Amino acid sequence: MTGAERSGGPVISQMTVAVLGGTGPQGRGLARRFAAAGLDVVLGSRDPARAAATAADLPGRVRGSSNADAASAGDIVVVAVPWDGHAELLAALAPALAGKIVVDCVNPLGFDQQGAYALTVEEGSATQQAAAILTASTVVGAFHNVSAVHLDDPDRSTVDTDVLVLGDDRAATDLVQELAGTIPGVRGVYGGRLRNAHQVEALTANLISVNRRYKAHAGLRITDL
């Protein structure tokens, strides 16, 4: 694992967080919150100029770059790209992502006249697909169900939701829970191993239905913890 470390593990506050797909709603919103928490953030995009322009509009230590440069720069790398380009991008960036914690928040969803629905993924989920491609990385699933609208609202001081964190490596899931906790109002909660990622990704389709019916930006809370 790269990045600043202390006895017992990495120090979140001294790590650089890269966000691939950082100019999209989810990526930009996460970048905003991580930067506001004092973290160094690198926004990646297929269009580096667009990434630079987006970074200039965000508070804190944020810079824009290509996805490849962001992957190389990050200690923790968040994948927030569209599902259609997920596998292709990760395959291309696998060497740059080797030895790093990669946080996948991609939801494989389709849309028709009845609304959103979960797509079938050969590997089981987007997170498992990432793990199958990035065999030299430690893949964790997280941030699937967080409202991009709330994340990217500069007037909203807190984002009141829990984030389910999934993975097979305890140190990595603990670190990503800590990363989630840098966002005011957010709590990272261990949600199981990578094999459980499908239902967490698919749940986003249900939340979209909730949001459309109630004109909201709903999140999740885990009770009795």
TrEMBL record:
Pfam families: F420_oxidored. GO terms for molecular function: coenzyme F420 binding; cupric reductase (NADH) activity; ferric-chelate reductase (NADPH) activity; NADP binding; oxidoreductase activity, acting on NAD(P)H. GO terms for biological process: copper ion import; NADPH regeneration. Residues 16-108 form the Pyrroline-5-carboxylate reductase catalytic N-terminal domain. Keywords: Oxidoreductase. SUPFAM superfamilies: NAD(P)-binding Rossmann-fold domains. One of its GO terms (cellular component) is plasma membrane. Transmembrane segments: none annotated. This is NADPH-dependent F420 reductase. The lineage of its organism: Bacteria, Bacillati, Actinomycetota, Actinomycetes, Micromonosporales.
